[in-house]
Amino acid sequence: MRVLISADIEGISGICDPEQTRPGSQEYERARRLMTGEVNAAVEGALEGGATEVWVADGHGTYRNVILEDLHPAACLVSGKPRLWGMMAGLNEGRWNGLFMIGYHARAGAYGVLAHTINGSAFAEIRVNGVPVGEYFLNGLLAGACGVPVRLLSGDDCLAAEAAAVFPHAEIVTVKRALSTRAAVHSHPEIVHKALREAARRALLNPLCRPLSLPGPFAVQLSTVRTYHADLFAAMPGVERLSPVCVGFTAATPLDVCRTLNTFSAMAASVA
């Protein structure tokens, strides 16, 4: 039984401010340790549930956050960028029995601690077939196209509410409660780790989880934070300018959706 863990940082207990998510500060180094601790709890639970192989795809920022020497020795770490599959790197490496999303957050345009989708400085909202979506949806859809069900998610209470509507049979662990976009009531790491271990073990024994499968093509609308972001993205072939701050494109597969959005994000970062 093989498990892929996609790990982000904004949905980790103890994290509530952008400074904690950016390399170069003591707050970030502490955040990395908190992130690694929650990932380890998920790894331990997966092993208890029967997993024979676990990969951890570091999915925040530079994709170099999880501390390798502190990671559970049974897990392999995928880090660094650029990489074709982004936050889901490793998904194309053979058959997986389940996907865990650890440290995830609510979508852009919604309430939640550090809520955003892919690039908070450039993307104001992403819609797929007219519906606002977050990273959990995009990555779950990508996993579903590969026949892999989402079995576990963790983050704040806002992420939990959004994810439950998309993945009704998945285990969801709420690690903190949002008070605002930069404030939260956090659970102690020991409590969180215990909950993650138990949920991960249950997740692998749950027969009800099914891959998220939606037929293509996918109509994607991206509302941008600034007009110049839309100026930039509209230069891409196949992209239509819908308004001063909105572009659209059609993608045949979930991978095409994610690749295009990740390319937009890289473009925005290059001119930030």
From TrEMBL:
Residues the record lists as binding Zn(2+) 1: 8, 10
Domain of life: Bacteria
UniProt keyword list: Metal-binding, Zinc
Pfam families: Peptidase_M55
InterPro entries: DppA_N, Peptidase_M55, Peptidase_M55_sf
Binding residue positions for Zn(2+) 2: 8, 60, 105, 135
Entry annotated with the keyword Zinc: yes
CDD domains xref list: DAP_dppA_1
GO MF, one annotated term: metal ion binding
Active-site residues, as the UniProt record annotates them: 116
Protein name as annotated: M55 family metallopeptidase
